[in-house]
Amino acid sequence: MSRFVDRVVIHVAAGDGGNGVASVHREKFKPLGGPDGGNGGKGGDVVLIVDSQVHTLLDFHFRPHAAAGNGKGGAGGNRDGANGADLELRVPDGTVVLTPDGEVVADLVGEGTRLIAAQGGRGGLGNAALASKARKAPGFALLGEPGEKHDLVLELKSVADVGLLGFPSAGKSSLISVLSAAKPKIADYPFTTLVPNLGVITAGETVFTMADVPGLIPGASEGKGLGLDFLRHIERCAVLVHVVDCATYEANRDPLSDIDALEAELAKYTPSLADDLAERPRVVVLNKIDIPEARDLADMVKPDIEARGLPVFEVSTASREGLRELTFALGRIVEEYRASRPKQEATRIVLRPTAVDDSGFTVVEDPQTPGGFIVRGERPERWIRQTDFSNDEAVGYLADRLARLGVEDVLVKMGAVPGAQVTIGDLVFDWEPSTPAGIAAVAMTGRGTDARLEPHNRVGAAERLAAKKARRLPGAYDEDLEEEE
Ligand SMILES: Nc1nc2c(ncn2[C@@H]2O[C@H](COP(=O)(O)OP(=O)(O)OP(=O)(O)O)[C@@H](O)[C@H]2O)c(=O)[nH]1
Ligand SMILES: [Mg+2]
């Protein structure tokens, strides 16, 4: 028998982008034929895909590490590196993806629904793509970006219309077994059901599903019995059914106090999907009326429960009395619930909250270092990752980009003095006015020009731009290709 696993932590690692390459075309009698370094390939993504053939998260329990392929580096002769292979992970319908802090990233419902769990790094541009009017023969290329790597929590929340609630041995599994083709284990000892079962039920035109979950006892919220965790399988239900045992011999128990006790536990459960369980309609099923004492008790408490506004059904899963009426009533409630909800598309992805604004940057005073500053922003931080710091020209190119973005101006306005410590992403450096890395010197000489190359590069700007656009990688950043003013 396979184990049922409904919560796992996985470590996903997308592939790194390949590095761009700096290369110069060589031919006999034309020793410097222009830059021809190709771009690095994109790193592979880690993708989650809903597959109705998969029913548990068991595989991830045994193999929690998932890594996609890295992009290959570019090569001379304008050869681009190959993209890394994506890694596709198959998950059950109703898998909810959360951050380790419990924030919902996506709710994966419907066959084929996909989520990019970790995005592959973009490949770095080669020096051919980086060439511009002002920089005809770049002696550097951009590094590939690292792929996203993080931990994610996967939780399976079954997609059922009706959820059964009840004390152990109330007859929940018996009910689903007589209403559907599901054949769960049934026995007269508590906690027979350890993992949820799903059954498909037909009531006239309506087909709906029912989830049988483990029994609940008072104190479940403190971990008594099987606790409350399995309640995640009834979070999506249109209606909750209290299955009440009217034939229990246990002292201090009767149908009304059973319902109250379980409602008190339910109130302590916090669903991670948006809806509140308190608002969900409820139905009460008084079970085991084939036993005369149980029928008497059921007849006695029925008016009191109805007085609370709850529909009540007296049934016996043994004699099958009252089941037809119950089935049709549940079918009607499910239909009403479906009609009241926006139509659910097959693909429903809650996108990861993305960085607020990727065009700008902020500068704050460094709380650790008096007189120091921290620059934050999607672009400057990415540029740092793309830079090969062993190459002066690449560092100069970075300085140009930062200056054009206005980082330098803001530092000056905020009172940065020469030698101030400035942090951007992983990079910490001593800032010099207008030359965080030799920017002024470079701006005057024009970095990347090489007089020897002039004859080979007399091509119209428009043609050059068109040629570069044709070489643009899918996913390359426009600004990496921008002409410098
Ligand atoms: N006489 C009678 N016994 C019933 C009826 N329904 C269930 N039972 C018995 O009650 C016992 C418990 O039934 P289950 O269906 O396993 O109960 P459960 O609510 O699923 O219990 P857990 O899985 O432990 O939470 C079994 O011995 C059943 O045969 C009924 O209508 N009449
Ligand atoms: Mg059971």
Quick structural gist:
The chain has 485 residues and is of the alpha/beta class. The chain has helices at 58-62, 127-130, 172-179, 255-267, 292-307, 323-340, 378-386, 392-405, 407-413, 439-445, 461-470, 478-481, and strands at residues 7-13, 46-50, 65-67, 87-91, 95-98, 104-108, 114-118, 149-156, 162-165, 197-203, 206-212, 239-245, 282-287, 312-314, 362-365, 373-376, 420-424, 427-431.
Structural account:
The chain has twelve helices and 18 strands. The protein has 485 residues and is of the alpha/beta class. It has a six-stranded mixed beta sheet with strand order 10-11-9-12-13-14, with helices on both faces. The radius of gyration is 32 Å and the shape is elongated. The chain binds guanosine-5'-triphosphate (GTP) and magnesium ion. Magnesium ion (MG) binds next to helix 3. Magnesium ion binds next to helix 3.
What name goes with the CATH superfamily of the largest domain?
A: P-loop containing nucleotide triphosphate hydrolases
Spatial strand arrangement across the major sheet: 10-11-9-12-13-14
CATH architecture of the largest domain: 3-Layer(aba) Sandwich
CATH topology of the largest domain, anyone? Answer: Rossmann fold
Number of strands: 18
Q: Please, what is the average pLDDT?
A: 84
Number of domains: 3
What is the C-alpha radius of gyration, as a whole number of Å?
Answer: 32 Å
Main beta-sheet strand count, sense and barrel state: 6 strands, mixed
Q: What small molecules does this complex bind? A: guanosine-5'-triphosphate, magnesium ion
**Helicity level, as a percent range?**
10-25%
In whole angstroms, the N-to-C terminal distance is 68 Å
Q: Which regions are unreliable across 5 or more consecutive residues at pLDDT < 50?
A: 436-462
What is the highest CATH level, the class of the largest domain?
Answer: Alpha Beta
Number of helices: 12
Structural class based on helices, strands and sheet pairing: alpha/beta
Label the overall shape: elongated
| Strand residues, percent | 15-25%
Summarize the helix and strand pattern as letters: EEHEEEEEHEEHEEEHEHEHEEHHHEEHHH
